[in-house]
Design goal:
With 287 residues, this protein is α/β, with parallel strands linked by helices. Helix content is 45%, strand content 13%. It contains eleven helices and eight strands. The longest helix has 20 residues. Bound molecules: nicotinamide-adenine-dinucleotide.
């Protein structure tokens, strides 16, 4: 049973973790946002403050509400403190299996016996890292979408190793923070949304590689021709070209299929550190 006294920890204070932690705190829970990088935590803290100030300027929040919200959001680089008393740990660190395993193994030493580990991975199914903890039946995927403060959907994935109780608890929890969960009944690489989205971005990058149309025109064609609100290349800039590269390389290493290799358009930008909005340059220029 879910109640608002439950203690939530979010690990990884990057693009996703910051907004997931904020969403949880906005819905009345106490949240610890953990990252191993002090710089990332400072950035997350600044983002939360600026977000509140924008709401206040629009008359959608007052100073008391801001203070109350921020009092429920703790920032820490101490994994022991982050783990202490956590009922649910939402993991939003980099999308690399070995990193997720190392992190889970470490935090599992300090969390209570029945803690649930919910990975926000965009593609990697939890059975690939669930054995890092003592109770793999408590490890699952709960996939939020970017920006997590805005996007309603969360994919909850029932791998064979996950207990029914954990699935039920996470359905209740996700609903309690104002999101809409959908059940993915079996593990599959990329779940539902990203499998469909990947087919589209792969084709868009191929069209860039082939010089078939400009970046702008590919996005314009998808928006006007398919009625999408954003083009695939705009979305890649928003979600991160580095993330897309890691994901495709992980798949390529698994399959060895040259068709799974990241496209030239992605590799070139990745090599130059042009990761999209977060580095001010990707398919588009944000300076
Ligand atoms: N970016 C998106 O659009 C998006 C959407 C849905 C899901 N996801 C998933 O969310 C997760 C995070 O993605 P992101 O885009 O927020 O990444 P990000 O690079 O913005 O942030 C990752 C954060 O994790 C921290 N970190 C890395 N290793 C760590 C460790 N061992 N312990 C603690 N902190 C650590 C980094 O310092 C960084 O601040 C990934 O699994 C990704 O697949 C991303």
């Amino acid at each position: 049973m879910i109640d608002k006294n439950m203690k939530i920890t979010v690990a990884g204070s990057g693009t996703m973790g910051t907004q997931i932690a904020m969403q949880v705190a906005l819905n009345g829970y106490s949240v610890k946002l953990y990252d191993m990088s002090e710089k990332a935590l400072a950035k997350a803290n600044a983002f939360a403050n600026e977000w509140c100030d924008k709401k206040i300027a629009k008359g959608k929040m007052n100073e008391n509400e801001k203070e109350e919200f921020l009092s429920r959001l703790m920032f820490t680089d101490d994994i022991k403190l982050a783990a202490e008393a956590a009922d649910i740990v939402i993991e939003a660190i980099i999308d690399v299996v070995s990193a997720k395993k190392t992190f889970l193994k470490e935090i599992d030493q300090y969390t209570p016996e029945n803690a649930i580990y919910a990975s926000n991975s965009s593609y990697i199914v939890s059975s690939r890292f669930a054995d890092a903890v003592e109770h793999p039946e408590n490890v699952l995927n709960t996939h939020f979408f970017n920006p997590a403060l805005v996007m309603k959907l969360v994919e909850i994935v029932k791998g064979d190793h996950v207990s029914d109780k954990v699935i039920d608890t996470m359905f209740e929890f996700i609903s309690s923070i104002g999101k809409e969960p959908v059940l993915i009944k079996k593990e599959i690489y990329g779940f539902v949304v990203n499998r469909i989205f990947s087919a589209m971005t792969k084709e868009a990058c191929y069209l860039v590689d082939m010089g078939i149309a400009s970046v702008e025109d590919i996005d314009k064609a998808v928006k006007l021709g398919l009625g999408h609100s954003m083009g695939p290349l705009e979305i890649l800039d928003m979600t991160g070209i580095d993330l897309e590269y890691d994901v495709l390389m992980d798949k390529f290493r698994m399959t060895g299929d040259p068709a799974d290799r990241p496209s030239t358009a992605l590799v070139e930008r990745y090599a130059k550190g042009e990761y999209g909005r977060k580095s001010k340059k990707g398919f588009y220029d944000y300076e």
